[in-house]
Design a protein that fits this description.
By secondary structure, the chain is mainly β. The chain is 0% helix and 45% strand.
């Protein structure tokens, strides 16, 4: 099942969550996971999630569409735009597909599923672009920045924690040099790498326990104010925790991160 939380502007009473996606009777053998929601422009919102077909050991992405002025916790606000967003379904006979991330920038859409890169011109149909190196399926965070994409990856092993600036969603990430790296120094969990932007143009990357940071720092926050060209360490939001937090998502709204 997939749930969406919604709080209308100016309502301080909290966020109401309701079930948006339940398996229809014709896909009862499916299991849904890893939702991602994106502002699609033109007053629209898109919801993406993996749909695992347990009978065939394959996986695809479903896409839902809604108006950003609607009650997004109401199932009737959403329309199923596609059950096959990936041009070729993923084979899960060997291992399950990884976490899904989606971002929009310059009219294009970038999607990562684990360490696989996909791109789309309309946000409905995605083409496979290539694979890249990541420590695990949760070690990737992406976001839009002006006309570019920001991709943050804990590459693990002898590699670095790296932040890439991608000008075209269809360009292979593996062929681009990172704009920022932290040399490997051990102690990385690689979980829940996140990217978010504020209205003033500042972009943040949250990297739980990334490589090379001071011992026992649970997470590093990096920031850029020039669309990803240069980066600096903004601080340690979870100082004092013995282990890096996991399963995080951050988002920017006006002048705050949540």
């Amino acid at each position: 099942y997939v749930y969406v939380g919604y709080r209308p502007a100016g309502n301080p009473s909290g966020i109401a969550f309701d079930q948006i996606v339940a398996a229809p009777t014709d896909t009862a053998a499916s299991k849904f996971a890893y939702p991602a929601i994106v502002a699609a422009g033109g007053g629209r919102v898109r919801l993406y999630h993996l749909a695992h077909n347990l009978a065939s050991d394959t996986c695809n992405v479903w896409v839902w569409d809604a108006s950003d002025s609607a009650d997004l916790s109401d199932l009737n606000s959403w329309t199923l735009a596609s059950r096959q967003a990936l041009s070729v379904a993923l084979d899960e006979s060997g291992s399950a597909a990884g976490r899904i991330r989606v971002a929009r920038s310059g009219g294009q859409y970038l999607m990562t599923i684990g360490a696989q890169q996909y791109a789309s011109a309309d946000g409905i149909r995605f083409d496979f672009v290539g694979e890249f190196t990541a420590l695990n399926p949760a070690a990737v965070g992406i976001g839009g920045a002006g006309g570019s994409f920001i991709v943050a990856i804990d590459e693990g092993g002898a590699g670095d924690f790296a932040i890439y600036r991608l000008g075209d969603a269809f360009a292979r990430l593996s062929a681009v040099s990172p704009s920022f790296t932290v040399p490997s120094g051990g102690g990385s969990s690689g979980d829940s790498v996140c990217v978010a932007a504020l209205d003033d143009g500042t972009i943040y990357v949250l990297a739980p326990n990334p490589h090379g940071l001071a011992a026992f720092q649970a997470a590093g926050m990096f920031a850029t104010r020039d669309d990803g060209l240069t980066w600096s360490l903004a601080g340690y939001p979870f100082t004092g925790l013995a282990n890096g937090p996991r399963e995080l998502v951050i988002t920017g709204y006006r002048d705050r991160l949540y």
